[in-house]
Amino acid sequence: RGHIINLSSIGGYRSSVGWGIYCSTKFAVEGITEALHDELAPLGIHATVVEPGYFRTNFLDGSSLQRTAIEISDYADTVGKIRHHASELNYQQPGDPTKLAQALLELVNADTPPLRLPLGTDTLRAIAEKNAYVEQETAQWRTLAESTDYR
C-alpha cells in the first residue's frame, strides 16, 4: 500500500576519516528507516534505505563539496589524504547515475522491497569489509562482552 524510500549512502553503513559529520547524518537516516520498516510493516507500508556508493556526479567538485580554506598540518595524514583522494576520485567514480535511477525504478515497483539496497560494487565491498571487521572484533572481545550479564 505504500513504500518509503530514504536515500543514505555507503557513509550510512560505515564512517571514514574526514566524513564524520556527513556519515553521522546518514547513520541517522539508516536508523529511522530501520524503525519505520518495522513500525509500518503491519500497515502494509514498506521502508527501504538506499545506500549508493560513489556515483559519477558533481558531488566531489566545488559546486557541491565545500572544503575549509584552512588546512591543519596535524591532520595531513588523515583528513589531508582524504581531501587529496576526493579530488582524484572526482568524475572517476565507478557508479553510473543512469543505472542508479533504473535501480530505483525497479525498487519502487518491487512487491517485496528490501530494508536496505546497497548500490555499486564499491558499496558491496565496503559492507563486506565492515561486516568482516565487526565479526572479527566481536569474536576477539566476546568473553568480556558476555561477562556483563547477570548470572
Please give a handful of descriptors for the protein shown.
151 residues; alpha/beta; Rossmann fold; 2 domains; 4 helices; 46% helix
Written description of the protein model:
This is Short-chain dehydrogenase. Belongs to the short-chain dehydrogenases/reductases (SDR) family. Pfam families: adh_short. There is one protein chain. The model has no long low-confidence stretch (mean pLDDT about 85). Helices cover about 45% and strands about 10% of the residues. The N and C termini lie far apart (about 45 Å). The protein has 2 domains: about 1-55 and about 95-140, NAD(P)-binding Rossmann-like Domain (Rossmann fold), CATH 3.40.50.720; about 60-90, no CATH class. It is an alpha/beta fold and about 150 residues long. The protein has 4 helices and 3 strands. The chain has a 3-stranded parallel β-sheet with strand order 1-2-3, sandwiched between helices.
Shape-level CATH architecture of the largest domain: 3-Layer(aba) Sandwich
What's the shape? Answer: flat
User: Distance between the terminal alpha carbons, to the nearest Å?
Assistant: 46 Å
The whole-number mean of residue pLDDT values reads 86
**Gyration radius, rounded:** 18 Å
- Please mark out the parts with pLDDT under 50 across 5 or more consecutive residues, or reply none: none
Strand order of the largest sheet: 1-2-3
Largest sheet: 3 strands, parallel
CATH topology of the largest domain: Rossmann fold
> Strand percentage, roughly?
5-15%
The topology string of helices and strands comes to EHEHHEH
Q: How many distinct folded domains?
A: 2
Helix content: 40-55%
The overall strand count is: 3
Look at the structure and name the CATH superfamily of the largest domain: NAD(P)-binding Rossmann-like Domain
Regarding CATH, which class of the largest domain?
Answer: Alpha Beta
Count helical runs: 4
Which structural class best describes the helix and strand composition?
alpha/beta
